[in-house]
Design a protein that fits this description.
- The protein contains 5 helices and 2 strands.
- A two-stranded parallel ribbon has the order 1-2.
- It has about 140 residues and is mainly α.
- The protein is about 50% helix and about 5% strand.
Length: about 140
């Protein structure tokens, strides 16, 4: 059983939203980048034995063209919510009916708190502004 998983979706979102790639294209790029990074780590161990030109051929999973910074925070938040909803549906289908909940926020702590609010099979979004974060946190009790 999988109780909790925490994902940094920024590299995925940068490609999916920033470059408008499909899920399959993003997965392929990120997988290739991860494999290249793993190979680079192994090659660094052998660098003392062989010297030569160092050409970085690894694909950029996150580059200037894929940045989310040029997009409005509201657009990114709505797009992220839709993508996470899509991911949750794929989990349900792939597992034969198991559901999952998600919390979307700018940091780990807020995401964790948000994920507990709409269980089972829901998601909670905490907006990025201070006003939205405070509106989310203020009504909560200090103890559970």
């Amino acid at each position: 059983s999988l109780d909790e998983a925490y994902l940094d979706l920024e590299p995925y979102l940068a490609l999916r939203i920033g470059k408008k790639l499909s899920h399959e294209e993003v997965v392929a790029l990120l997988t290739k980048a991860e494999q290249t990074t793993s190979n680079d780590d192994e090659e660094e161990q052998d660098e003392d034995e062989v010297e030569g030109d160092n050409i970085d051929a690894k694909p950029a999973a996150k580059d200037e063209d894929a940045s989310l910074e040029h997009l409005s925070p509201d657009f990114v938040l709505k797009a992220t919510a839709a993508i996470v909803d899509e991911m949750r549906k794929k989990v349900t289908k792939a597992t034969g009916g198991l559901t999952c909940s998600a919390g979307l926020a700018n940091n780990f702590m807020l995401s964790k708190i948000a994920s507990d609010l709409n269980k089972p099979n829901g998601q909670c979004i905490v907006g990025p502004s201070n006003k939205e974060v405070l509106a989310f946190i203020r009504p909560m009790k200090v103890r559970k």
